[in-house]
Amino acid sequence: QSLTGKFSLNNLSENLDKSTSGQLKVGEIIDAKFTFSDQQKLRLGLGINAPGYVPQKGFSSTIVLDQLDISVWQSWLDKNFPESPKKISANTNTAQNSGFGIDAVSANIKNLKLADKSFKDVSLQATHDKDQWYASLQSPVAKGLVQWKSARTGFPEGKLTARLQQLVIENAESGDTVTKSVNKRIQKIPALDIQSDELIFNNKSYGKMELIASNDKNDWKLEKLSLKTADAQINATGRWILPKETKQLNAGKTELNFDLDINNAGQLLSKLGFPKTIDDGSGKLVGHLHWANAPYNFDIKSLNADLSLDLIKGTILQVDPGVARLLGVLSFQGLTRIATLDIGGVLKPIVTQGTPFDRITSTGSITNGIAKIKDLSMRGPQGNIRLTGKADLIQENQDIRVTVVPNFNAGSASLAYTFINPIIGLSTMVGQYLIADEVSKLFQLDYLVQGTWADPQIIALDNKGKPLDEKQLKEIRDKSLLKQQTPTKK
């Protein structure tokens, strides 16, 4: 299709007091309007698929596009305007001394492609002053104000500051796709200072976010990451040890220290994809993590961690499939399966529809995806439970020892046992609270739970730590769990 063009000049005169104005129009694609005089610098407004308007100063552009691929323009710029060491050091002076530069941009783009990702309906209003850009951004992905500072001392790759009402991140691409994209410009990630009133990741809200990070070309340092909701707040620091720019899929290594304050563990787990796992519960989870991959690509096979949990006042519910199935050992489901081996029925006062707890404490570590539970203790109104052992987070299997110690006191359902066991009856008569712990130990039960999370094998142990069924001794995978288990203290 042929294009028609028009060029016109108005007030072209030798009179120095008058300005000369003009217009260059190419079909409906380009509309450039300008004015200049001996007393005033050139002012130019360029419209692309939109009318051009003469700005109050400098050069402005109004852009309306159906499609824009930033990578195409980036390749062209890299080819025709390669970076040089002088460029960064002279950046400020260049911006100040340049007689012509873009001062304002207004853009509306239906389909924007950036870093191998597509964004729809992007609206941008931006102004430029020296070496800084200020912009108002409206799109389904981000809404708010953005500032960009060009490279300088302390920020070798520049700095992006954003104050957003909402930030939406969709992780639809595979890890390899993202890694390939990042590896192309791995050392050019800018410093970030981003605050968003709401972060939405994969259609789930993670509340208010604050991120501060910087790049020294060897490490991308996470100085602060904060996410806050009504249910919890996490504060984290760490670093991304950057790989060298390479064609191989190498995304470096991530190290992370975090402190998670929990207001409602049940609501938090539900938002993370594990509904009906715990009801209520508050406390703290503290940990140090590192894995051989980028922050955006969590790799459980190389995961190493040290973790500490302290949770109070909640109820462990029936556990649905997923990673949270490991909690099934403490749930109504798990304890019911164990109780079927308890001929004396000692577990019946403990096993209810949902297992309430006063406090859960745990310390543990993870080595290449294998979790070692050093000591997980649950204290509840009906009894105390302790877990030690290990769980394979990759293969989803476990080797765990469970110790259950029921509580006996005058105010519990266990008072019924005073009519069955004379020892307990005696303890009630002479002052049950003085020897309640010793009585509870008489009813201590130990089990091994091994095999897959979906179909675990439960092996009952006697008071010496040996299987009640001697034939099962050969079936035990981790015989170190047969060592004496110390009861959990109330």
Structure description:
- The protein has 490 residues and is mostly beta strands.
- 14% of the residues lie in helices and 46% in strands.
- The chain contains seven helices and 25 strands.
- The chain has helices at 70-80, 85-89, 91-97, 175-184, 265-271, 332-339, 422-442; strands at residues 5-10, 20-26, 30-37, 40-48, 59-69, 102-114, 117-129, 132-138, 142-149, 159-169, 191-196, 199-201, 204-205, 208-215, 219-228, 232-241, 253-262, 278-291, 304-316, 355-367, 370-379, 383-392, 397-406, 445-452, 456-461.
- The protein has a 25-stranded mixed β-sheet that branches.
- It is elongated.
- The termini are far apart.
- Residues 84-99 and 410-436 have low confidence and may be disordered.
Question: Which features characterize this protein?
Answer:
single chain; 490 residues; mainly beta; 25-stranded mixed beta sheet; 7 helices; 46% strand
Topology at a glance:
Elements: E1 5-10, E2 20-26, E3 30-37, E4 40-48, E5 59-69, H1 70-80, H2 85-89, H3 91-97, E6 102-114, E7 117-129, E8 132-138, E9 142-149, E10 159-169, H4 175-184, E11 191-196, E12 199-201, E13 204-205, E14 208-215, E15 219-228, E16 232-241, E17 253-262, H5 265-271, E18 278-291, E19 304-316, H6 332-339, E20 355-367, E21 370-379, E22 383-392, E23 397-406, H7 422-442, E24 445-452, E25 456-461
Parallel strand pairs: 4-5, 5-6, 10-11, 10-12
Antiparallel strand pairs: 1-2, 2-3, 3-4, 6-7, 7-8, 8-9, 9-10, 11-14, 12-13, 14-15, 15-16, 16-17, 17-18, 18-19, 19-20, 20-21, 21-22, 22-23, 23-24, 24-25
